[in-house]
Amino acid sequence: MLLAHHERCFSPGCRETYFSAARKFSFCGGCARVPFCSKECLARAWNHPEIPHKSICKKLNLIGTTTKIPSRPEPQDRSKFQDRLHKAGIVDSVLADVVSHLDKLVKETSTAFGRFDGIFSNIY
Ligand SMILES: [Zn+2]
Ligand SMILES: [Zn+2]
């Protein structure tokens, strides 16, 4: 899940991980939640024809800053996450956009993103 800990490039089609590249990646400057291995990968992800990062960047930023969920969340953080989302009045349509985007991204890469893959989809 993007709000959780992740150590891979989030550009569709890219398989680079911190481990394979033997370094950490820079996060997207807009949402600060999604790492990319290179400027090229960020550019490709940003304008991807089916799942462009630009379509969810602001929404991710909103959700990330509102919930202040740590980059390595613990299982008990899930209720805090839901609570803060609810209090902030983040509308379901914003969340639904992010959820469906991430679902597509996960399918596209067919790679596990970490422990909290389902944090968005499980809150409904
Ligand atoms: Zn990459
Ligand atoms: Zn972003």
Structure description:
This protein has one domain. Helices cover 43% and strands 3% of the residues. It contains five helices and two strands; from the N terminus they run H-E-E-H-H-H-H. The protein has a two-stranded antiparallel ribbon with strand order 1-2. A hairpin with a 7-residue loop joins strand 1 (26-27) and strand 2. One zinc ion (ZN) binds next to helix 3. GO terms for molecular function: zinc ion binding.
Short précis:
This is MYND-type domain-containing protein. By secondary structure, this protein is mainly alpha-helical. The chain has helices spanning 18-21, 39-46, 57-67, 77-88, 92-109, and strands at 26-27, 35-36.
Secondary structure: elements and pairs:
Elements: H1 18-21, E1 26-27, E2 35-36, H2 39-46, H3 57-67, H4 77-88, H5 92-109
Antiparallel strand pairs: 1-2
One zinc ion is lined by residues 9, 11, 14, 16, 36-38, 41.
Keywords: Metal-binding, Zinc, Zinc-finger
GO molecular function: zinc ion binding
Domain MYND-type: 9-57
- Count every helix, treating DSSP H or I runs of 4 or more residues as helices: 5
Largest pleated sheet: 2 strands, antiparallel
Q: What average pLDDT do the residues reach?
A: 78
Q: Return the structural class.
A: mainly alpha
